[in-house]
Amino acid sequence: MPYASTKQLIQRAAHAGTVIPAFNIPYLPMVEPVARALKDCNSVGLIVVARLEWEKFESKSLEAVRDEYEKFKSPAHTRLHLDHVPVIDEDDRRVDYPAIITRAIAAGYESVMVDGSRLPFDENVACTRAIAQLAHASNIPVEAELGAVMGHESGPLPPYEELFASGKGFTDPDEAARFVQATGVDWLSVAIGNIHGAISAATKGQQKVAARLDIQHLDRIHQKTGIPLVLHGGTGIRKKFILDSIRHGIAKINVATAIRQPYERHLAKGVIAAQDAVYAAMLTVIRDELEVQNSNIRLNQEDKPYLHYELNSL
Questions:
Q1: 268 located within any domain
Q2: Does residue 189 lie in a domain region?
């Protein structure tokens, strides 16, 4: 049977009021338990790698993750996505992002993300538009980010409550509408109180800040943009906020810390023990936190309601 493309899956999740989780791979052996858990739960999810995960962890390269993915992929349950490729990275270095994204498309990644969120608005638009044109030529959907989802910076964050109260870095709804119109991007990662897990050696093992989400702000972005929205930094956010965000436009959610830290904590016992810990954490995320067990039944079927939705969204 033909399976839905990644773009179709995200569209269907948005329409059905559910979400597709995206699981980051900072260590290559994590691919197997992530793919196994998605298959065992009959769920649909993305296996993803960001540039910082081969620069600062041990995923080696986007090609290495692709090779590992090919061993364990399940067309009904998994897709391969290139996560954050920054224009300017967390260390304020300029990145050759077009070359990385071109490599990913050639390697068979089914969707990509360009992250120009550290740029001024007009520069972010220009970079994102260029990548959208590049990727769309190969029928690859593109995710971008507007606003500042903090946490990957090398220095310490300001106190979380101070960040949330000030709305510092939050995605502006009017800017988001202009951004989507000007770039042709398929999905937009937004900042509404969510933060990334820390990646520095000194802090990456610490418990993540319990972030919360400004759902009213999210709803304004959703109403203005009309495209599927993405929540990065999904670990540690209370379930109530997560489920509310899905009802207000979030169709993809990234999960990293929740599966990375169990792997790191158990690695001293061996790779198998670390993989088992990842598998157990995956089951908790899929079944209990996101409630997306059996999402394959809802998202991968070529049924009339979804066909009607897609025809009317053209």
A1: yes
A2: yes
